[in-house]
Design brief:
768 residues; alpha/beta; 8-stranded mixed sheet; 4-stranded antiparallel sheet; 12 strands; globular
Length: 768
């Protein structure tokens, strides 16, 4: 009843605001009063306090960006597949705010009311409007598939019609996220003027590092969104706005935000915010655990002890046959590895079938926790089981064990995508190189079994062809086992011999069907996932038209936002264009560093956070170097930057380029190769902002707008592969080099000659 009342009130308020221009004028007047009061208080703030605020505001801004990405992805699955939407919206808001920092009055007190309202609207849409209507269940894409979201069976027209509510949701959230970040960017730009440019930039980078570290710590302890947003709102409320006359509005908004996030919208469900996703634990009719991810079915547990064998229901007999199917090819194996161990069903089956030791690999610690506490057979408590919380690819690369049997459970990340790319957390598990690495760990006659609920037959062709192409493997077997889905298929291969279907009448009775010939048909080699093109869930290698439609919407909305906030009528100066192209290159190289280190160290949340921090540390060290020894010419830094990109490109194409006998030495070399471009680009950036006449907040604004453009360009990897991002980045950095030549001697360019937003020519500031 409360949700219905809230929906009615919000709808009435929105309608009133649209129909009565006086409401808009009233809001504008109130915002003007807020900005006047803040400016009066800001003028009384000491320079020392402003310098401290640089770190706090930058930290809050980056934390806000990361938290919005995580929270929206946990509420609506569409934001998992379009994570860049939220990231780019934050870049847009922050960049526009930096651009007008010294041109418009700042009203940071607006952030908390807008944030509280945004969270309330999204919560209402998820748990009231969209709870039973299915408005937001489709996904506006045809190129990718998911086990629990059927989209590839729709034609374009039907898909667009069903996706209309989602496009509206994406567009609205994009603008609202930009609006929330806009005052933060304004305040950050103002504060940067209180210190010399290079010192201010150092503090800006330090705040960014602290923001990433804060989310890292909160993820480490699985803290819920109410804590995430409390950290952001607390920084703004109790430090930045402590002397603002409108603080009561901030306090009221803070309380509303906490109430909305703490409200038990589904009291019958236990909610765990793992570092990767929102897990929702429910109870099946039989009293056993059922787990949802992104609001969709994910995993469930069964109780199949030996004492029940022969006295089970038909359903339990079938489930037992499915989980014990791989052991028909390897009786009583000595050592078993289970990839995607989940809540423990596969581990329990291995123990029942006489495995001497089981290595259970699961990337999500929260799923292991749920399995340990809720699986009726308690497989994780067995002394024969070793639980490894790690990325499966990284485990196979670093282990020295040999296995009789390697089982891939129905391993699908559903909507768990990486923060900074279009990869799912299991993307590198299902590449040709990844499965080959696992195969090499088999003992003679060892067996690999990969089960997958195929949302599209193309994924089955990919798995079958990868297994067919492994050196030393016999002819694989493909069996339709129909677990949880009529398309679930087990792909089995053995070292040194062909695999044949077991002669078991029970399998035929349960509908197990040999479909090896079907999946052995020819399939385009270009669409087989590799470490450079790890898009297993794409039906084929094709340019992502669905994403291009959405990104076209981003460009249109960005144009409208910039026109409204900055304006588009003046000239822009050539001397600021290098910052734009540096931002574009930075975004692409950061994305490649995250994906590449994810390949080497595992695509875990820990690796992603560590990579982002390492990238920021490289920029911080470069800025310290320039502070101590200013560079009048940046040619050497540009040369080092482009040379490091060339080396990185060849390294991405050939991972055996740098191999040491010591794994630690190889790891260090990889980290240096992948992040050293950030050091050289940092030297260029810091050298440019130290020039006379350069306004740091305007420079940062261009930099963020460039990062937004680089984020759009990152989607090219879905066709060309990730190594291609190095070539794109090199092109952007070359343009930065060209436009940094003798900028004082070249007249300002008119905006009509350049595609991009007008950024105030005499402003300051940037973060990345």
């Amino acid at each position: 009843m409360l949700l219905i009342s809230t929906r009615v009130l919000l709808g009435a308020a929105t309608l009133l605001a649209l129909l009565h221009p006086r409401i808009e004028r009233l809001c504008v007047r109130q915002i003007g009063q807020m900005s006047t009061l803040f400016e009066e208080g800001y003028s009384r703030t000491s320079d020392g306090e402003k310098i401290r605020f640089i770190v706090l505001v930058t930290m809050a801004g980056l934390l806000l960006e990361l938290v919005m990405i995580r929270w929206l992805a946990s509420v609506f699955p569409v934001f998992s597949f379009f994570k860049n939407f939220t990231l780019l919206a934050c870049f847009l808001g922050l960049g526009a705010g930096y651009a007008v920092a010294d041109k418009q009055r700042c009203a940071p007190a607006l952030v908390l009311p807008m944030l509280a309202l945004f969270v309330a609207i999204i919560t209402l849409l998820r748990y009231d409007v969209g709870a039973d209507t299915g408005f937001f269940s489709a996904l506006p894409m045809l190129e990718q598939t998911s086990i629990s979201i059927w989209m590839d069976r729709l034609d374009w027209l039907t898909l667009l019609v069903q996706s209309a509510p989602l496009y509206l949701l994406l567009a609205t959230s994009f603008i609202l996220c930009a609006c929330i970040c806009y005052p933060v960017g304004q305040l950050g730009g103002k504060l940067l003027h209180s210190a010399p440019a290079l010192k201010a930039y150092s503090l800006n980078l330090l705040g960014s590092i602290l923001g990433v570290a804060a989310l890292f710590v909160m993820s480490l302890f699985w803290l819920p969104p109410v804590i995430w947003f409390t950290a952001i709102a607390g920084i703004l409320l109790f430090f930045v706005l402590s002397q603002d006359a409108r603080q009561p509005v901030g306090i009221a908004s803070f309380c509303l935000l906490i109430v909305v996030l703490s409200w038990p919208v589904q009291p019958e469900i236990q909610r765990l915010y793992s570092p990767y996703q929102l897990l929702e634990r429910m109870t099946k009719p039989d009293g056993l655990m059922n787990i949802l991810s992104g609001g969709s079915y994910y995993q469930k547990v069964f109780n199949l002890p030996e004492s029940n064998r022969g006295h089970e229901s038909e359903e339990d007999r079938y489930v037992r046959a499915y989980y014990e199917f791989p052991f028909n090819f390897k009786k009583k194996p000595e050592r078993v590895a289970i990839v995607g161990a989940g809540s423990g069903n596969d581990v329990a089956a291995a123990l029942r079938m006489g495995a001497s030791h089981v290595d259970a690999i699961e990337i999500d610690p929260a799923i292991v926790y749920l399995g340990k506490n809720n699986h009726p057979e308690h497989p994780y408590d067995d002394p024969r089981v070793t639980v490894i919380v790690n990325d499966a690819r990284n485990f196979f690369r670093t282990t020295h064990q040999q296995y009789d049997l390697i089982i891939y459970g129905v391993l699908d990340s559903h909507t768990a995508l990486s923060h900074a790319s279009n990869l799912r957390v299991d993307s590198y598990v299902y590449t040709r190189e990844g499965i080959t690495e696992a195969f090499k760990l088999l003992k003679p006659d060892g067996v690999i079994s990969i089960s997958f609920a195929l949302p599209n037959e193309s994924l089955g062709y990919k798995l079958s062809h990868i297994l067919q192409g492994i050196p030393g493997a016999g002819k694989p077997l493909s069996v339709r086992v129909r677990y949880d889905s009529s398309t679930t298929t087990a792909f089995v291969t053995q070292k040194g011999r062909d695999v044949v279907m077991p002669a078991n009448s029970e399998f035929a009775a349960f509908g197990f069907e040999n479909v090896s010939e079907h999946f052995a048909q020819p399939y385009p080699e270009a669409s087989i996932p590799t470490d450079d093109w790890p898009f297993f869930y794409m039906i084929s290698r094709t340019y992502p038209v669905s994403y291009m439609i959405a990104l076209g919407m981003v460009m249109l909305l960005s144009y409208m936002f910039v026109r409204r906030t900055i304006g588009l009528n003046g000239p822009i100066e050539r001397s600021y264009l290098p910052f734009f192209f540096l931002g574009s290159g930075f975004m692409l190289v950061e994305t490649k560093a995250i994906t590449e280190l994810g390949l080497h160290l595992g695509g875990t949340w820990f690796v992603i956070a560590a990579t982002i921090i390492l990238v920021l540390v490289m920029a911080f060290l470069a800025n310290l170097l320039v502070q101590r020894k200013p560079l009048q010419r940046t040619g050497y830094a540009y040369f080092g930057l482009l040379a490091s990109l060339v080396v990185g490109y060849f390294y991405a194409r050939n991972h055996d380029l740098v191999v040491f006998s010591s794994p630690l030495a190889s790891l260090i070399a990889s980290c240096v190769l992948l992040t050293i471009p950030m050091f050289f680009s940092g030297i260029v950036f810091s050298s440019l902002i130290s020039r006379a006449g350069i306004n740091i907040s305007t420079a940062l604004s261009y930099n963020l707008m460039g990062a937004l453009f680089g984020g759009l360009m990152e989607y090219n990897s879905m066709y060309f592969g990730f190594a291609f991002l190095y070539l794109l980045a090199a092109g952007f950095y070359f343009l930065a080099w060209v436009f940094s030549w003798n900028p004082a001697g070249v007249p300002a360019l008119r905006l009509s000659a350049i595609i991009g937003p007008r950024l105030v020519p005499k402003g300051r500031g940037s973060t990345r």
